[in-house]
Specification:
Blueprint lengths: L2 E2 H8 L2 E3 L5 E2 L1 E2 L9 E4 L16 E5 L11 E5 L2 H16 L4 E2 L4 E2 L4 E2 L4 E2 L4 E2 L4 E2 L4 E2 L4 E2 L4 E2 L4 E2 L4 E2 L4 E2 L4 E2 L4 E4 L4 E3 L5 E3 L5 E4 L4 E2 L4 E3 L5 E4 L4 E2 L4 E2 L4 E2 L4 E2 L4 E2 L4 E2 L4 E2 L4 E2 L4 E2 L4 E2 L4 E2 L8 E4 L2 E3 H12 L1 H19 L1
Parallel strand pairs: 4-5, 5-6, 6-7, 8-11, 9-12, 10-13, 11-14, 12-15, 13-16, 14-17, 15-18, 16-19, 17-20, 18-21, 19-24, 20-25, 21-26, 24-27, 26-29, 27-30, 28-31, 29-32, 30-33, 31-34, 32-35, 33-36, 34-37, 35-38, 37-39
Antiparallel strand pairs: 1-3, 2-7, 22-23, 39-40
Function: Catalyzes the N-acylation of UDP-3-O-acylglucosamine using 3-hydroxyacyl-ACP as the acyl donor. Is involved in the biosynthesis of lipid A, a phosphorylated glycolipid that anchors the lipopolysaccharide to the outer membrane of the cell.
GO molecular function: N-acyltransferase activity; UDP-3-O-[(3R)-3-hydroxyacyl]-glucosamine N-acyltransferase activity
Subunit structure: Homotrimer.
Length: 343
């Protein structure tokens, strides 16, 4: 799939400086560019590479003025980084623009789907499934009864979506994700044995939610587990039953969130964070990687450690943690000197 500099400039609303007919068919980092590749320059630290790169086309900011001769054709735009990201998204749309129903696949007679959909081989669509326009369902996907998927949803190979799940528009579900499995609900009986509590709720993903590979989102015991608009989940995250995550919150890999916890909007949660159940985390909270959260968190707090402390307090305390052996040795020495002076 080849694109000329002129075509790319039209997509990005940029201006070509060089040969508008030169074509590219691959992408490259600026320091690794070669003939036929497209790259970009956004970070000033990489400016030197613009003069040595072999890439055929480079996207640069409008204010970039070369200080020496450049062989590469330039496309000048308002924001090179955002424009390159836009181009990647366009490329993915073209690359993944599959349509049609492959066989063998199973689609219930009561299921319905919109226009320009793709349903890959060995996919399963249960009873009363409703799928919007331009939805892509890759091979070996399971979609249970009464599931609904909005327009432009993409479900990659091997994902499992249990019954009653509701997924909004423009969502992406990556391979191996499981949405709607039972929550971890058990109650002890008189013999001390644990019996399962039926999980009768569902999962709701609002518009523009991304779910990473291998991530699991459990259905609610009653009601719904809810991920609000624009939530982005990394790979291998566990979201327990009845959790609610606010708009545009992002969560990195291997984080676990226990049941019935409410997380606010525009939070940033690092990798391997553990969050207990039945607490509330405010808006715009930032939690550093490997922190343990066992209490309610107010808006705009920044936390680190386990149990988590205020980020600034943690860093101050860590200085003393590192020096603890020396401090203990000094105290012991002072104690010896005090006793020696008393004798």
């Amino acid at each position: 799939m080849k694109f000329t500099a002129g075509q790319i400039a039209a997509i990005l609303e940029g201006e070509v400086f060089g040969n508008p007919e030169i074509a590219v068919d691959k992408l490259a980092k600026i320091e690794e560019g070669e003939q036929g590749s497209l790259t970009f320059l956004a970070n000033p630290k990489y400016t030197s590479y613009i003069y040595t790169t072999k890439a055929s086309i480079a996207i640069v900011n409008k204010d970039f003025e070369p200080e020496q001769e450049i062989d590469t054709t330039l496309i000048k735009v308002d924001d090179a980084y955002k424009s390159f990201s836009k181009l990647l998204e366009y490329y993915n749309q073209v690359k993944n623009n599959k349509v049609g129903v492959e066989q063998p696949s199973f689609i219930s007679e009561s299921a319905s789907y919109g226009e320009a959909v793709y349903i890959g081989a060995f996919a399963y669509l249960g009873n009363n499934v409703k799928i919007g326009d331009n939805v892509k369902i890759y091979p070996n996907v399971y979609i249970g009864d009464n599931v609904s998927l909005g327009d432009n949803v993409c479900v990659f190979a091997g994902a499992k979506i249990y019954s009653e799940t509701v997924i909004g528009k423009e969502c992406v579900i990556h391979s191996g994700a499981i949405i709607g499995a039972d929550g971890f609900g058990y109650a002890p009986n008189e013999q001390g044995e644990f019996t399962r509590v039926p999980q009768t709720g569902n999962v709701i993903l609002e518009d523009h939610v991304d779910v990473g590979a291998g991530t699991t989102i459990d259905r609610a015991t009653l009601g719904s587990t809810i991920l609000r608009k624009g939530v982005k989940l990394d790979n291998q995250i566990q979201i327990a039953h009845n959790v609610e995550i606010g708009e545009h919150t992002v969560i990195a890999a291997q984080t676990g969130i226990a049941g019935s916890t409410k997380i606010g909007s525009r939070c940033m949660i690092g990798g391997q964070v553990g969050i207990v159940g039945h607490i509330t985390i405010g808006d715009r909270v930032k939690i550093q990687a490997q922190s343990g959260i066992g209490r309610n968190v107010k808006d705009d707090e920044v936390l680190q450690g386990s149990p988590a402390l205020n980020y600034g307090d943690y860093n101050k305390s860590y200085v003393h943690f590192k020096n603890l052996p020396k401090t203990v040795a000094r105290l012991n020495q002072l104690e010896k000197e005090r006793k020696s002076g008393q004798s």
